[in-house]
Write a structure and sequence with these properties.
The protein has 158 residues and is mostly helical. It has four helices and two strands.
Amino acid sequence: MKAMLAVLLAATCGTSAFAAADKPVQATTKDAFEAVAANVRHEMDGGGRYSYVKAAERDKVEHGLAQMLALFDKAGSVDAMTGDDKIALFNAQESVNAVLELRDRDRLVCERGAVPGSRIVSTTCRTYGEIEAQREASQKLMQEKVAGPCISQPCKGG
């Protein structure tokens, strides 16, 4: 499943970017939406598919989910929503989509560049999760190198 949240709107809006290529998640009622929203929140926790979502982005996702829930509270289902509410639902959904798709640990990122030590150009593809894990490991290594032997005991001298 490429994305966690898909609210399939009426023909006026079409399907969202959150509809997975292989199997869309349909949240056309309040109950279905609440289950999907809970799953999105779970996936933003440590180790989840969207665990790289930053704090400010999490607030944006929560705001979008709250907007969508308010629309479902008002109408109960997508079918019962007014045209304006469907547009508002779609826009809130797209805002959430933008954050989750950017921070999706399974998103493939390809870079083209020279192989180190040569002039041969190649394309390298890694998942966003692999890139972030490598970045975090590099930061940890640098912090350990800078701290040196002072990690377990106070450093002497200047």
